Amino acid sequence: MSENGQSGGIEARAIALNISDRKPEPALYLVATPIGSARDITLRALDVLNTADVLAAEDTRNLRHLLDIHGIPLRGRRMVSYHDHNSERAKPAILQALGEGLSVAYASDAGTPLVADPGYRLARDVAEAGLTVRALPGPSAALAGLSVSGLPSDRFLFVGFSPSAAGQRRKWVQSWSDVEATVIAFESPKRVKQLLQIVCEGEPNRTAVICRELTKKFEEVLRGTVSELVELVPDEGLRGEIVVLFGHPEKKEVGEGDLRAALADLLGRMPVKEAASQVANRFDLPRREVYAVALEMKKEGS
Q1: CA-atom Rg of the chain in angstroms
Q2: In whole angstroms, what is the distance from residue 123 CA to residue 132 CA?
Q3: Bridge partners (DSSP) listed for residue 158
Q4: Which secondary structure element, helix H or strand E, spans residue 81, and what is its range?
Q5: Strand ranges of the sheet holding 182-187, from the earlier edge strand across to the other edge
Q6: Number of neighbouring beta carbons within 10 Å of residue 125
Q7: Of 120, 132, 212, 268, which one has the fewest beta carbons inside 10 Å?
Q8: Residue 63: C-alpha distances to residues 36, 106, 227 (Å)
Q9: Where are the beta strands (DSSP E) in 20-81?
Q10: How far apart are CA 178 and CA 176, in angstroms?
Q11: In this predicted model, what pLDDT tens digit does every residue of 220-256 receive, in sequence order?
C-alpha cells in the first residue's frame, strides 16, 4: 500500500478504441467472431466490419447485434445472408460485388468461418473466380478447447459435429478412434454421454476432456478417463456449448499374428524396408525388430 492508503499499482484507465475508417482492398474477408465474450473480437475484425462495402453472415441478425455491441453503424450498407440452405442463391450477389471491386466481410454465427460452419464453398468459388480471399484470425472453439485441455497439441484432428443417428455416430467414432492424434469434436449437450459411452466400449481408459461454455460466465472443463466422465455426466446431458477432446488412443498389445498380417498386406506392394517402417509406425514398435520379421517373411515367401 502507498502512504495515502491506496494501492501502489498502476491505476486502471479506459482505453479509447480507435476503429479504422480506411477502406480495405477488394477481397472476401472471413471474419472470426466471438464464441462467448463479445470482447474477444480483434481490432482488425472491427476495422473490416466498419469499412467493408458489403456485410455477409450466416445469420444477419447475429452480425447486426455484434455491430451494435461495438458501436459500428451500418450506414446503409448491404447485408447478405449466406448459409447452407441458400448458398447457391446468395453466391452470385457476393461474386458480383467482388467483381466490381468491392470488399465483402463474411462472418459465421460464432468462431472462425469454415470451421464446422458454412462458407467453405464461398471461399472456394471466390478463389476459383480469381478473386482474393483473406482470413481475419480470431476466436475458435476447437482451438480454445485444445488450449485448455492439457492434451498433446503437436498433432490434432478436428472431426466436427457427431452424426445424430446412433448407427452413424458409431461408424463416425470408428473412423477416427485409431488415429494417433488428439481428437477434437463438437457435440450436442444432450448427446455427450452417448458419445462417451460409444468410445468407452473400446477404450475406457482413453483420456478425455469436456469443455463447456468456453469464454462464457459458466465456463467449465471436466477431465478424466472416458469411463470416469461417463459416470460424471448425467443421463440428461449437459447444458451449453460443448467441445469434447480425446487424447491419443490407448496403446494396444500387438501379437505376432497381428504383426505378420500387417506386413503380409504390404510386402507384395512395396520394398521390405518401407513396409517395415510403415508397420513399425502403426504399432509403435522398434523398426529394427519389425524389419527382422519382414526379412524372415520375405525369405519364407521366396
Answers
A1: 25
A2: 9
A3: 184
A4: strand 78-81
A5: 156-161, 182-187, 242-246, 207-212, 220-225
A6: 17
A7: 268
A8: 14, 9, 40
A9: 28-31, 54-57, 78-81
A10: 6
A11: 999 999 999 999 999 999 999 999 999 999 876 777 8
For residues 8-27, average pLDDT: 68
Q: What is the CATH number of domain 152-246?
A: 3.30.950.10
Sequence-distant (≥ 6) Cβ neighbours of residue 236 within 8 angstroms:
190
* CATH architecture of the domain formed by 28-136: 3-Layer(aba) Sandwich (3.40)
Q: Evaluate whether 139 touches 167 at the Cβ level (below 8 Å).
A: no
Q: For 82-206, where are the E strands, in sequence order?
A: 104-107, 133-136, 156-161, 182-187
Please say if the pLDDT value at position 1 is more than 60: no
Question: Measuring CA to CA, how many Å separate 86 from each of 80, 93, 110, 128?
Answer: 11, 12, 19, 20
Record the pTM: 0.79
Give the span between the Cα atoms of 275 and 253, in whole angstroms. Answer: 20
Angle at 149 between CA 227 and CA 39, to 5 degrees: 135
| Type of residue numbered 138 | G
The C-alpha cell that represents 141 in the structure block: 472453439
Q: Hey, what amino acid is at 7? A: S
What is the residue extent of each domain of the chain?
28-136, 152-246, 256-301
